[in-house]
Design a protein that fits this description.
The chain is an alpha+beta fold. It folds into 2 domains: about 30 residues; about 100 residues, Glutaredoxin, CATH 3.40.30.10. The chain is about 35% helix and about 20% strand. It has a 5-stranded mixed sheet with strand order 1-5-4-2-3, covered by helices on one side.
Amino acid sequence: MNAATLPASAMPSHRRALLLILALALLPIVIGGSLHYFGWRPDKTSNHGTLVTPPVALGIDSLKGKWSLVLVADAPCGPTCAARIDELRRVRVSLAKEWKRTQHLGLDARPTALADLPAGTVVIVDPNGLAMMRYVPGADANGIRADLERLLKYSWIG
């Protein structure tokens, strides 16, 4: 009796082991794909800000090319606003060698895309000019720094 005439139930053990290894290797891909397909999202995330979904184009050319920390204000910057901008500057400086990839600024004239945000909101804008994360007024600077540090670590742009 040769290998060509063996019944399917008599598959050699090395082929069965190979198929089992292949099935185990593909199992996480199948599980991950099905979770994504059915729209499952984790209840808790590790970021401190709120993701802007979908990201919003601001249309400000000076925001392109670097990661930007933008402080949204209603009027010309007063003492509170100046203190918050200085806090954003210190967040940038604390990023060590990555600080050159970032910039910070305050916006007196609010873009229409940010019209619904309250004054004092901090927005992270990616190097393509898209607002992608926002923080409530008075948000902790350490949380902003942690999120920005993670973005810079995994980003290849800017």
